[in-house]
Amino acid sequence: MNKIFSTPRGTTDILPEEIALWHDLEAKSRDLLSRFGYREIRTPLFEETELFARSMGQTSDIVQKQMLQLKSQNDDTDSANFALRPEGTAAIVRSYIQNDLDKKEALSKLFYAGPMFRGERPQKGRLRQFHQIGAEAIGPNSASPFLDAEVIALSVKLLTTYGLPQEQFQLKLNTLGSTQDKESFSFFLRQQLKSHLQALCPDCQNRFERNVFRILDCKNRDCKSVVARLNLDYSYLSDESRQYFTQVCEALESLHIKYEINQTLVRGLDYYTHTVFEIACPALGSQDALGAGGRYSGLVAQLGGPQVDAIGFALGIERVLLALGKKTQDDKPIDVVFVSLDESVLKHNFMLSHQVREAGFSAAMSYRLGSMKSQMRLADKLKARYVIILGQDELNKGVVTLKNMSDGQQEEIPIFDLTLLVQRLKI
Ligand code: HAM
């Protein structure tokens, strides 16, 4: 028996009846992102593995456990050094540097939409191939709390524009401070956690030295209870960083954007500094983050580019669709369906449908003769605005019958009078 293939675990087909919903989200995103001044950028689906390791951090879960590396059968190629992109930011920064965008503009506002790949254990809302719509604002002019607030407002606005009511999601906000503040923060955390080390899960005991921040967002119950008892405050922040964060909060308030400060929000990627945020939809269960982002002041320079600031975010489209609770959206109605009453008229309907499409309308027909009933069923399924019926009798008279499906009115139109037909279809 022939093997029946199916999608790899953690990947899905997006079927034609689902695609209208995707197009709708994409169109709304493009419109809104361009109103905020973002232009689209498309980068390869794979990059050098080292780019991801250097940007997200060797100790991040993604780099440690989730990279889908490309293997080649040919040892001579360097493809073993490539990995499918787990996120967009690193590649955008690589492109920003490679294409000297800093020399062309003081602020590059870039957006992307496309698949990302992470070798995670699949579950509801967690896939190995998923899609993000994201935006990055990079450049010397990007270091402003107004931009932080604008980026956050944009991600919230995207969700409400998709139709998700604001009550269904929560905006969590935190600041990690500057690179120096992060150092003090990690020292502060180690001091506080030192005496609780035995109570942490084995992963977090490891993280204590490698990446102490990650202990703060560990899902393990014991770790959570240790973290809940920590005396977190912003004492490790410099005055400058504290003032910056206050300005971000004030700018959000001026736009009436509700947020909650969550000091355990540290995000799993090393590149973040200062403002970090996450938008959660509690109804989604354990994988509840609809999107997230933050500022990354050092990344561009760290990857060999100029010392410029940057901030961005990405939304997970599959999770947004889960939150919207929609799987399908009706297709656009078709303008006309051609119904053939006789084998001999198929070729006429074939040519007519072609001419109607040339004139700018959508058209469909049954390519094999079926009963009138089955052809009318097709017209109903496609939500035809009009049906054109052609049989031997009509052909002999040199006409087609045009039926308006909204009021049932029928009229005969000369078969070669395309101008009249087009006039009718326009109504
Ligand atoms: P992230 O938090 O890793 O951030 O991912 C952003 C969003 O992508 C998540 O909130 C979630 O909605 C979606 N997502 C992530 N992993 C999966 C998965 N396995 N299955 C389904 N959806 C998933 C980033 O990727 C950063 N690059 C965001 C950013 C941009 N920060 C600054 N600029």
Draw up the topology in text:
Blueprint: H1 16-35, E1 39-40, E2 46-48, H2 49-56, H3 61-66, E3 82-84, H4 89-98, H5 101-104, E4 108-117, E5 129-139, H6 145-162, E6 170-175, H7 179-193, H8 202-210, H9 221-228, H10 239-254, E7 260-261, E8 273-280, E9 289-295, H11 299-302, E10 309-316, H12 317-324, E11 336-340, H13 346-358, E12 363-365, H14 372-381, E13 386-390, H15 392-397, E14 399-404, E15 410-414, H16 418-426
Parallel strand pairs: 1-4, 6-7, 11-12, 11-13
Antiparallel strand pairs: 2-3, 4-5, 5-10, 6-8, 8-9, 9-10, 13-14, 14-15
Helix pairs in contact: 1-6, 6-10
Bound molecules: histidyl-adenosine monophosphate.
Structure overview:
This protein is 38% helix and 20% strand. The protein is α/β, with parallel strands linked by helices and 427 residues long. It folds into two domains: 16-178 and 238-324, Bira Bifunctional Protein, Domain 2 (BirA Bifunctional Protein, domain 2); 336-426, Rossmann fold (3-Layer(aba) Sandwich), CATH 3.40.50. The strands form three sheets. It has an eight-stranded mixed β-sheet, sandwiched between helices. A five-stranded mixed β-sheet has the order 12-11-13-14-15, with helices on both faces. A two-stranded antiparallel ribbon has the order 2-3. Helix 1 runs antiparallel to helix 6 and helix 6 runs parallel beside helix 10 (239-254). The longest helix is centred in the N-terminal third of the chain and has 20 residues, at 16-35. It is elongated and about 95 Å long. The protein starts with 15 loop residues before the first helix and ends with a helix. The structure holds histidyl-adenosine monophosphate. The site of histidyl-adenosine monophosphate has 24 residues, from strand 5, strand 9, strand 10 and helix 12.
